[in-house]
Structure formats: structure tokens, C-alpha cells
Specification:
This protein has about 425 residues and is an alpha/beta fold. The protein contains 18 helices and 13 strands. The protein starts with a helix and ends with a helix. The structure holds pyridoxal-5'-phosphate (PLP).
Length: about 425
């Protein structure tokens, strides 16, 4: 029996929803007994002549000083030798421990987070495993535009939008109706704090959301895009990701719960490109081993392995005694910008400026009156007001990335916007 068939049999026996939801590529892919695997087998041997990387002959790196000096302070083994395709084990464990603590000690079994190149690759790997030509992929409207590329352009999935707003109110009704009308295998993407609106549902709405997703008969892959995890600016909001509630209650005959998170926004390390893919599944199970093999197969054939220097830097941060204090300080800056923008939008005297509610993440959204076209307004704001905002697909609205505007400039930004809308 082939390795892929054996992995698929394990999933079919233990995790029927995952087996039934696998794409054709998801079924085919596995991590071969190739060079990285044989090199791992040979770890600790006296003469390890398995892998094509130059060392001092005893397993330590010998980088060119011109490169090494740029990474001074990082663990040289991590920054100058190949990483395993799944990422470094100690980094994966450190991230898992941190996320588990942030979950408030959830007991949901989860796989060791698989290191990817940013959250974008987490989403891409999820799509490769579970999206085929015509697989329904339920996505919020509005949404981060790159979902369309990841799920449709690359994988041929069939995007099904669910509106997130009814007027200016967050609503679950369209998601409920869309899920009810969707037969599995299908995928649904949940993204809170939400890009572009900056909204997170309150605790009661979040509980309702979890119930309605888990009511689907499956096979349903639930991809929780937690790019902005932990960025809540209202202390009444739930303190943890929906992933944990879904993971604690899901039924492996019906649902596959995936989490995409990473250091991009959570540790403000935007170009580090360290993302993690975590699956709600017993880490000691054959299913977890099957996922690890399939993901390693995707990594090996896609990007080889994730970059070492970024992983070394993230591990350094995760073991740094001041990390949480530094994050608290960075968040205080963001909270001040958020508060200032909330106040400035509330005070703006213009019935042409129609803000949506926002309580989290790093964005806010303003709706435009019907007589204005968001693309024209966007260009006019640049030309006449020196103000750069982003137009959204499918909604006559603009997105404000307020996270990158100094607190003292926020009143000016809103003033320029009001003036630009006429
Ligand atoms: C909702 C959402 N998901 C995923 C990503 C991708 O993150 P990364 O930059 O780590 O690839 C972003 C980035 O802006 C995002 O807004």
C-alpha cells in the first residue's frame, strides 16, 4: 500500500470528516522518505553525510561572516542550517504553549502548530488540502481580498459570500442561511477580529455563531483566520479565539477545525513570515501524523522549508522575559489610536461619512453615500487631501488602516475624509 493510501486509511478510520473533505491533492500528498526524512533518521550518527548543507563537519554551521554578522544574537543552528519542513520543534511547542495559555487553558486536543510562511501560506495549505475545483468556500462579505486568490484563482473553489452586516449591525443570519443551503464537503472561513471592518462579535453572538457552525451536518472544514488574535479594544469582548470553542465541541464525523495564526500581527513581526496551522485533533493520533505528513509534503514540494532566521527570532521573542510587557506597551499605543478614531468619527459632522462599528483589529470601515463611487473617492482623497485609504470589493466603502496613523494625526485624517466627501 502506498504511503498516501495508508495515511488516508488512518484518516478515514479516525477522522471521517477530514477524510471526506480532502481535496484530490490532499489525498495524493504525503511526506516521502526523501532527504529530510533520511537526514532526520541519521541525526546523531558519527558521520552524517545525508544533507547537502555545509557544516564544520560536526553538525554546526559555518556561515560567511558577511551574512552571519547580520544575524548576530540568533541561535546560529537555526539561522544558518536548514529547518525541518514543519518548522523547528521548540518553536512549535513554544507557540502551542503560548496559545494554550491565551485560550484560558482550553483542554481541546490540538496538533502541534505547523510552521508556514506567514498566514497566507497557512490559508494556501488549507486550501490545497481541502479545496478542489468547485468546492464551496463560504467567505464573509466584505473580506480580505486575497481569499479570492487563495481559494478561487489558485484552487478553483467556488466562493459563496455571506454578508457580515445588515445595515450597520453585525449579523449571523446570512451565514446561517448560507450554511443551511450548502452541502458538504465545504469550507467556511471565519475571521474575527475582521479585516476590513475591525469587528469581533460579543460573547453572546460568538456563542450563537459556534452553535450554528457546529449544527452543519458536514463534512465542513472551518478555517478560523486569527490573523488579528488578541487585538480587542473593548474589554467586554471574548478574550479568546472562536477556534477554542469550536475545537472543544466539534464532532470528527462532521467537522474539521483549523486555525491560522502567526507572528505577523500578533507579535508585530510583519515581514517575519512565520505563521502556524493548527488542527483540532489528538496530537498522539494517527490522524495527527497523517496531517503532519501531508503538510510536510506540501511544504517540501512548495517552499522546501520555512526560513530559519525568522524562526530563531520568534523563538528568541517567545522566551524573552519582557515579551508580554513589550506587547502591552505596543497595544497601549494602538488602544490610544483606536480611542481617538472612535471619538473623531463620532464627532464628525457629516451625514456623508457613514462609519461601521469597530471594536478590534487594526481597521475601521466607512460607508459612502450612493452618489459617490469608492474608487473615485479613493483617488480624489490621495490627490486632494493627501489621504490614502483602501477601496473594498463589493461594498461602497473605504477601509482605514488606523494602526499606521499617529494618534495626533487621527483628527486630521477624519477632517480630511469629511472634506474629501464634500
Ligand atoms: C485576515 C487576514 N488573513 C491573513 C493575512 C495574511 O497574513 P500574513 O501577512 O501573515 O501572510 C492577512 C494579512 O493582512 C489578513 O488580514
Amino acid at each position: 500500500m502506498s504511503i498516501a493510501d495508508a495515511l488516508n486509511d488512518d484518516l478515514a478510520a479516525e477522522f471521517p470528516a477530514a477524510f471526506r473533505a480532502l481535496s484530490r491533492l490532499g489525498r495524493r500528498i504525503y511526506f516521502p522518505q526523501g532527504i529530510p526524512a533520511q537526514s532526520a533518521d541519521a541525526r546523531g550518527t558519527r558521520y552524517n553525510a545525508t544533507i547537502g548543507q555545509v557544516t564544520d563537519g560536526h553538525g554546526s554551521p559555518t556561515p560567511l561572516p558577511a551574512i552571519a554578522e547580520a544575524f548576530a544574537g540568533l541561535d546560529a543552528h537555526k539561522s544558518h542550517l536548514y529547518s525541518p519542513p514543519a518548522g523547528h520543534g521548540d518553536l512549535r511547542r513554544a507557540w502551542a504553549d503560548r496559545q494554550r495559555a491565551l485560550s484560558g487553558g482550553s483542554t481541546a486536543p490540538t496538533t502541534l502548530p505547523f510552521v508556514c510562511i506567514g498566514l497566507t501560506q497557512v490559508l494556501s495549505f488549507a486550501a490545497e488540502l481541502f479545496v478542489d475545483e468547485d468546492t464551496p468556500v463560504l467567505v464573509p462579505a466584505p473580506r480580505w481580498g486575497n481569499y479570492d486568490q487563495v481559494f478561487v484563482t489558485r484552487r478553483g473553489g467556488r466562493l459563496v459570500e455571506y454578508d457580515l452586516f445588515d445595515g450597520r449591525e453585525l449579523t449571523l443570519e446570512p451565514l446561517r442561511q448560507t450554511l443551511a443551503a450548502t452541502e458538504g464537503p465545504a469550507m467556511v472561513v471565519l475571521n474575527f477580529p475582521h479585516n476590513p471592518s475591525g469587528m469581533t462579535p460579543d460573547a453572546a453572538t460568538a456563542a450563537e455563531l459556534v452553535d450554528l457552525v457546529l449544527a452543519h451536518p458536514g463534512p465542513l472544514v472551518v478555517l478560523v483566520d486569527d490573523a488579528y488574535a488578541g487585538m480587542a479594544w473593548d474589554d467586554q469582548l471574548p478574550g479568546r479565539s472562536l477556534f477554542w470553542d469550536l475545537a472543544e465541541r466539534h464532532d470528527p464525523d462532521k467537522h474539521v477545525i483549523l486555525r491560522a495564526d502567526g507572528v505577523t500581527k500578533e507579535l508585530l513581526f510583519f515581514p517575519g513570515r512565520v505563521g502556524f496551522l493548527t488542527i483540532a485533533c489528538d496530537p498522539a493520533s494517527k490522524s495527527a501524523a497523517a496531517f503532519e505528513s501531508k503538510l510536510a509534503g506540501l511544504a517540501r514540494s512548495g517552499n522546501g522549508s520555512p526560513p530559519g532566521p525568522s524562526q530563531a527570532a520568534v523563538l528568541h521573542a517567545l522566551t524573552h522575559p519582557d515579551l508580554d510587557q513589550q506587547l502591552t506597551e505596543a497595544r497601549a499605543v494602538l488602544q490610544a489610536r483606536f480611542d481617538r478614531l472612535s471619538a473623531a468619527l463620532a464627532a464628525a459632522q457629516s451625514d456623508r461619512l457613514r462609519p461601521y462599528p469597530f471594536n478590534s483589529g487594526v481597521f475601521a470601515m466607512v460607508g459612502l453615500p450612493d452618489d459617490l463611487d469608492s474608487e473615485e473617492v479613493r483617488k480624489r482623497l490621495i490627490a486632494e487631501q493627501s489621504l490614502g485609504l483602501v477601496r473594498l470589493g463589493g461594498l461602497n466603502a473605504l477601509r482605514i488602516a488606523w494602526c499606521s496613523v499617529a494618534e495626533e494625526d487621527i483628527d486630521g485624517l477624519v477632517g480630511a475624509l469629511v472634506e474629501g466627501l464634500g
